[in-house]
Amino acid sequence: MGEGGLPRGGAPGSHDAQPIDPPTVALVQVAAALAEGKEPALRQRLVAARAAAVPDIWIEELLLQSLLVVGYPLALVAFGVWREITGPASGRGVGGVGGEELAHEDWESWAKRGAAVCAAVYGRAYHKLLLNLRGLHPALEDLVLVDAYGKVIGRPGLDLKRRELCTVAEIAVLGAADQLHSHLRGALNTGATRAEVEGVLAVIDGDLDAERRRSAHEQWNDVKGRKL
């Protein structure tokens, strides 16, 4: 096995040929570490990817597309580690980090609904959230407001309180403490009672290992002591 657990493969019967080029190997290793969600390994592989001359834009786009694969909690953790390595994102679109703008024909209507729903969830922390997203990557604000909250979370068919209670359950199982803290607050902001939140934590108790159970209750205790 090669470094990072990938096989040192080649063509059948060959130990010399590499099936993919070294920058692509490094990028794939970053993707694997991102999905596993272990920050030290992810940091090590991101540093190794830069040393292997992986273009920053490749990593930027990998992290963005990972929102759709591993979800926002793990992808936001990955962006945080990446920014520790590269420093703050600068600007938007061309002349900034790079990549395609996200505007489209229905952007304005999705953005309006997404902003309203996201503000309802985050309450007093809404504007801080936007600043944090812009600092991680210029495209993240639009992805969160337009695609996540405008297109998906703002849809009819399930009320916002129940969406947040389900989100609390999912993120607690993933073990993403910072995002769990935000969505515990979000559940209260969207009408859940403390008893309802505690009911959710009780329901999923058997799905959590000891560390994630401890972390979930630690985050909840902190939320209960704060103003919304």
Structure characterization notes:
- With 228 residues, this protein is an all-alpha fold.
- It folds into three domains: 18-87; 103-155, no CATH class; 160-224, AhpD-like.
- Helices cover 65% and strands 0% of the residues.
- The protein is built from eleven helices and no strands.
- It has helices spanning 22-36, 39-51, 56-66, 72-86, 107-122, 126-136, 140-153, 160-174, 177-189, 194-203, 210-224.
- Helix 8 (160-174) runs antiparallel to helix 9, helix 8 (160-174) packs across helix 10 (194-203) and helix 9 packs across helix 11.
Topology (SSEs and partners):
Elements: H1 22-36, H2 39-51, H3 56-66, H4 72-86, H5 107-122, H6 126-136, H7 140-153, H8 160-174, H9 177-189, H10 194-203, H11 210-224
Helix pairs in contact: 1-2, 1-3, 2-4, 3-4, 5-7, 8-9, 8-10, 9-11
